[in-house]
Amino acid sequence: MHIVDRRLNPGSKSLENRQRFLRRAKALVQGAVKKSSQDRDIKDVMEGGEVSIPLDGMNEPRFRREGGTRDMVLPGNKKFIEGDILPRSGEKSGGRPRDPGEGDGEDAFRFVLSRDEFVDLFLDDLELPDLAKRKLAEAESEGIQRAGYTTSGSPANISVSRTVSRALARRVALRRPRLETILQLEAEIAESDDEAHRAELMAQLEALKAKARRIPFIDPIDIRYRRFENVPKPVAQAVMFCLMDVSGSMSEHMKDLAKRFYMLLYVFLKRRYRHVEIVFIRHTDRAEEVDEETFFRGPASGGTLVSSALQAMHDIVRSRFRPADWNIYAAQASDGDNSISDGEVAGRLLTDMILPVSQFFAYLEVGETGGYTFDMPDSALWSLYARLRASGAPLSMRKVSERSEIFPVFHDLFHRRGKQEKTAP
């Protein structure tokens, strides 16, 4: 048996060849995707787009003849001898590319990734830690739901109870003779000895039987069928809290590290939940809810009180995001500074108010380039969270100081958590 698939490829493109190309150049495409995401806002990272990869990595397998001797004659050669490397067009004899505007630059292959392809490559081989679905809301897809009754439909959908009740109402309204009345009249006729009275009763009986025949027990107008219609089907929703210290000790490099982590977390949640809200809370010695632009770029000054951000998150959850309705995720970024007197308050807020209602809470301690070494003492906030974690608090902690560490740390954080959940009894 031979099966020929004649289905058209979407958009008149070769879907099979495209998928084969993405598999072959997966490493190069993933690097281009991560580079492209650096200049995007958190919510814009979900969109697809154009990426560029070098042609050097696009070598395709080919057959070659091995063995034998081939002699080639290149006429008109006054510059090269055997063993020289021939430069490509646009390069000087030394093989280096020309300056901008002085010829062709390095060749690159550019193509457009769809939204799904972009996200899949961006988050390949990761697992979301807690996929517990709470109350469903924010309808996005369609499902089937009962929608009353109709006068036509499939026999399998006949509503017997509704049909019988309508038939009864019609018979009562039209005063259809009851069977008990007819049987009683027949008994009176059988017992009557008066011929005149008997004839009168016989006439009444025939009239009742004729009326009963004109008013059927079940009429086609009584039949009702159960009706179904397509309605929006609810899906799970999540809220992502971004908490960050914006005091003077937080440099732009540290904020950039935090943004990359938040971006990864948002895209990761978006793959599992159709509706994801983002709440930005920045803090010094006081906390405030702001938009994304102010969160990462707005100036701020003051000391550091982590408890102010945790209190602000608790107030927002209580007023807008009921834990019974929302899957709550939180990520906190800081350089580790915190007032010594604030440690007890922050720890109590985290363990009593935040963690019990959160699906996942991650603390990312950011530092300057090359800032973390093994002999460095832990920061005040890291020490506090480490004690809470040692006592059983369900929070995750990591340190990063380089941009290149963000994705490995994120991968390690979620990949390990995913394995633990899969092996849990």
Q: How far is the N terminus from the C terminus?
A: 46 Å
Helix content: 25-40%
| Count of helical stretches | 12
Strand content: 15-25%
Q: What's the average pLDDT?
A: 77
Q: What's the alpha carbon Rg, rounded to whole Å?
A: 38 Å
Biggest sheet features: 6 strands, mixed
Helix-strand makeup class: alpha/beta
The largest sheet has its strands arranged as 7-6-5-8-9-10
Beta strands, count: 10
Low-confidence stretches: 93-105, 125-139, 416-425
Approximate shape: elongated
Pattern of helices and strands: HHEEHEHHHEEHEEHHEHEHEH
Which structural traits does this protein have?
alpha/beta; 10 strands; two-stranded antiparallel ribbon; six-stranded mixed beta sheet; elongated
Helix and strand layout, with pairings?
Blueprint: H1 15-24, H2 26-36, E1 49-54, E2 108-113, H3 115-122, E3 137-150, H4 160-173, H5 179-191, H6 195-214, E4 225-235, E5 237-245, H7 252-272, E6 275-283, E7 287-290, H8 292-297, H9 306-320, E8 327-334, H10 343-354, E9 360-366, H11 380-390, E10 396-400, H12 406-423
Parallel strand pairs: 5-6, 5-8, 8-9, 9-10
Antiparallel strand pairs: 1-2, 3-4, 6-7
Helix pairs in contact: 5-6, 9-10
Structure description:
With 425 residues, this protein is an alpha/beta fold. It is 37% helix and 19% strand. The chain has twelve helices and ten strands. The chain has helices spanning 15-24, 26-36, 115-122, 160-173, 179-191, 195-214, 252-272, 292-297, 306-320, 343-354, 380-390, 406-423; strands spanning 49-54, 108-113, 137-150, 225-235, 237-245, 275-283, 287-290, 327-334, 360-366, 396-400. The chain has a six-stranded mixed β-sheet with strand order 7-6-5-8-9-10, sandwiched between helices. A two-stranded antiparallel ribbon has the order 1-2. Strands 3-4 form a two-stranded antiparallel sheet. The longest helix is centred in the middle third of the chain and has 21 residues, at 252-272. The protein is elongated, with a radius of gyration of 38 Å. It starts with 14 loop residues before the first helix and ends with a helix. Residues 93-105, 125-139 and 416-425 have low confidence and may be disordered.
